[in-house]
Amino acid sequence: MLLITCICLIWLSNACSLEAAYNLTLPHQHPDPEAVVEQVQRSLNHSVSRRRALLGANEEKDSFSSCLTGNPIDDCWRCDPNWQSNRQRLADCGIGFGRNALGGKGGQIYLVTDSSDRDPVNPTPGTLRFAVIQTEPLWIIFSGNMLIRLKQELIVNSFKTIDGRGANVHIAGGGCITLQYVSNVIIHNVHIHHCVPTGNANVRSSPTHWGWRTKSDGDGISIFGASNIWVDHCSLSYCKDGLIDAIMGSTAITISNNYFSHHDEVMLLGHNDNYLPDSGMQVTIIFNHFGQALVQRMPRCRRGYIHVVNNDFTQWEMYAIGGSANPTINSQGNRYTAPSDPNAKEVTKRVDTNEGEWSGWNWRTEGDMLVNGAFFVPSGEGLAVKYAKASSVDPKSSGLIDQLTMNAGVLGGTRDNSMSIAYPGFNNGGSSGGGGSGGEDDGFFGMTFGSGGAGLSPPSFVLSCLTAIILLLFSSSNAMATTR
């Protein structure tokens, strides 16, 4: 009798736990995702209308009105000629589910002066690793152009901003960025590419803790049980696994203004079909350019609510947006340009699921531009002409895609990583990442920087370069005179 009672109690306990998991609400999950969709559209409508009003005025166009693009994130800070003295204003410019990401707002400015990563357990002051593990909020900037090859994953602590504006910063050729069980992180304006698996090593995650890390996947940015995350204006390519992966109950994420290229499995949202906490995952994907040589997963979703709005998809090899386990996908005002392959025209893919299951999934398309035979297969509420609260807000026309995504990727230089870097031992024209990019070559040395964009190159750096050139010419002239 005692045995039967114990078995019954165990069964009831498991049943209660399972029911609790189904009703789980993540700490930073928004209770009304449609309200966030409306908020994004209002912000976008305001920026576009403001730009039109200023450009349409009879007054002489000033620098402020001409810099507006209608992109509410960029228009929030880029029109300020003194943005460098007020860098933390960026934290007020987020939209979508990750709009509350504070990053290092309110904290000190930390200047990275050393591009090395000699000891992941005892990082050197002045390095990026030393900065990101600190417990206090920090706004991290860079003293100049840098190629940072990380020996191990960069374990970022909460309340950090990695702000690459004003320098050409590449995190490449080694381990890359991990956001694990943290919150309030902003990653802005850095190149992330050729990331490879690292691990089976000790790595420091805070000033007081270091521990053993098993083998990593080789993601560009790994978001693991994290919340209030914003990735903006980065260029990502050629990684061993995903460019950005968000799993294990991560939520409150915005991925905006990025340039993705040369990769197979671009973005994974959700751990696996059976991981119920990912039902609370909420992600906004906005103003990104999905560029050259991409294959699939832009994104690939499991559970959750994914808002894909005003992105430019310039071809894919298999599909653009995929999913399983009944995610909600709200696609608004995107431009989907299909490849020439007649068997790859469909934007959407229900992964390993029969139509009897996915016909009720809420996959919507509204205002999307479908080019070169592309077609989006809606389902569930998406089949209706009107649905939910979002139907009262018109998505911004996909005809504005060129304008809204014109600055996607890293600002102030070429946004395609294959064009801005010299990779000894790498073949950028070869296979994409997420399946073997040859990124483990140890001969990763030189760096050829693209030209800096207007207003984004530090004057001191330009003057330093000119001074160095003059000194070099002067030294060469003296040497030639001596030999004569």
TrEMBL record:
Its cofactor is Ca(2+). The chain crosses the membrane at residues 461-481. Residues 145-342 form the Pectate lyase domain. SUPFAM superfamilies: Pectin lyase-like. Keywords: Calcium, Lyase, Membrane, Metal-binding, Signal, Transmembrane, Transmembrane helix. GO terms for molecular function: metal ion binding; pectate lyase activity. Its EC number is 4.2.2.2. InterPro entries: AmbAllergen (IPR018082), Pec_lyase (IPR002022), Pectin_lyas_fold (IPR012334), Pectin_lyase_fold/virulence (IPR011050), PEL (IPR045032). Binds 1 Ca(2+) ion. Required for its activity. The keyword Repeat does not apply. Gene3D superfamilies: Single-stranded right-handed beta-helix, Pectin lyase-like (2.160.20.10). Pathway: Glycan metabolism; pectin degradation; 2-dehydro-3-deoxy-D-gluconate from pectin: step 2/5. It catalyses: Eliminative cleavage of (1->4)-alpha-D-galacturonan to give oligosaccharides with 4-deoxy-alpha-D-galact-4-enuronosyl groups at their non-reducing ends. Residues 1-15 form the signal peptide. Belongs to the polysaccharide lyase 1 family. This is Pectate lyase. It comes from Aristolochia fimbriata (White veined hardy Dutchman's pipe vine).
